[in-house]
Specification:
GO terms for molecular function: catalytic activity; metal ion binding. This is Carboxyphosphonoenolpyruvate phosphonomutase-like protein. InterPro entries: ICL/PEPM (IPR039556), Pyrv/PenolPyrv_kinase-like_dom (IPR015813), Pyrv_kinase-like_dom_sf (IPR040442). The chain has one domain: Phosphoenolpyruvate-binding domains (TIM Barrel, Alpha-Beta Barrel). The strands form 2 sheets. It has a 9-stranded parallel β-sheet with strand order 1-11-10-9-8-5-4-3-2. Strands 6-7 form a two-stranded antiparallel sheet. It is an alpha/beta fold. The chain contains 11 helices and 11 strands. Strand 10, helix 9 and strand 11 form a beta-alpha-beta unit.
């Protein structure tokens, strides 16, 4: 079974799985070492690690694909690439970038419906029909080459300054499913009840990023198939670094020196 087949099998079995997200080879190898069956890349983590803001127009796509390529080559488990809005303005570019993700060994890739990232606080969104054309282009490009490749279609509608509209999210995800997506994804959903409404509206697997107050057991109960951690592992690591640096001058400020993974533990992970 190749990685595309293995990744599709995770989505087709009737069980929830957790998919942590990596931003570099080391984080990917640690996730694999911890026993997880698949990895998502985090576009935010990749950007932050290179000194850019999330989805920065200043970051070169070659840097993004180079990071994804290194993550894929670092592990043996399936990797799905966060390709933001396809990293593309045209349908032809969407097709090209999804074929590229497949060619470097990704088992899946995601496409979202943001049209303009210039202002991270108020992103602009493709109309549903245009967003569907892009999902259709992505799906058609890779499924013609490998039917097992998982195309995840994502709406970021709830992450911007829009009014919280469950109806809009459902409408977009249902349309994306009809356009050929294999998995649907809507970060920013606030409650288990809303997630259940979305899940019941779809026939394909639903991926979620949990928010505070949710539990894996409850998400499993309502039929969620995939949990993504997004950029949360990267942010947790940087939170720990920030905390250590802020407390360095405290009487116990050097206690962190005994709390990290040992060099031998890390050496074992990176072999």
């Amino acid at each position: 079974m190749n990685t595309c087949q293995a990744f599709r099998a995770l989505h087709e079995r009737n069980e929830l799985f957790v998919m942590p997200n990596a931003w570099c080879e080391g984080s990917a190898r640690l996730i694999q070492q911890m026993g997880y069956a698949s990895i998502g890349t985090t576009s935010a983590g990749i950007a932050y690690a290179k000194g850019y803001r999330d989805s920065s127009p200043s970051m070169d796509n070659e840097d993004r694909f180079a990071a994804i390529d290194r993550i894929v080559r670092a592990v043996d488990i399936p990797v799905t690439a966060d390709l933001e809005n396809g990293l593309a303005k045209t349908l032809e570019q969407v097709e090209e970038h999804f074929r590229r993700a497949l060619s470097i060994g990704c088992a899946g890739a995601s496409i979202e419906d943001i049209s303009d990232y210039s202002d991270p606080n108020t992103p602009l969104y493709f109309p549903i029909a245009e967003a569907c054309d892009r999902v259709r282009a992505a799906s058609g490009a890779v499924h013609a080459l490998d039917a097992d490749f998982i195309v995840t279609a994502r709406t970021d509608y709830l992450l911007g300054a829009n009014e919280y509209s469950l109806n809009e999210v459902v409408a977009r995800l249902v349309a994306f499913e009809e356009a050929g997506a294999d998995c649907l994804f809507a970060p920013g959903v606030r409650s288990i009840e809303d997630l259940e409404v979305i899940r019941r509206s779809l026939t394909k697997p639903l991926s979620v990023i949990p928010v505070s107050g949710m539990t894996i057991d409850r998400l499993r109960t309502i039929g969620i198939r995939r949990i993504s951690l997004g950029s949360s592992l990267f942010r947790a690591a940087y939170r720990q670094i920030s905390t250590v640096l802020l407390q360095l001058e405290n009487p116990d400020g050097l206690d962190f020196l005994k709390s990290g993974l040992s060099l031998s533990q890390l050496d074992d992970v990176m072999r």
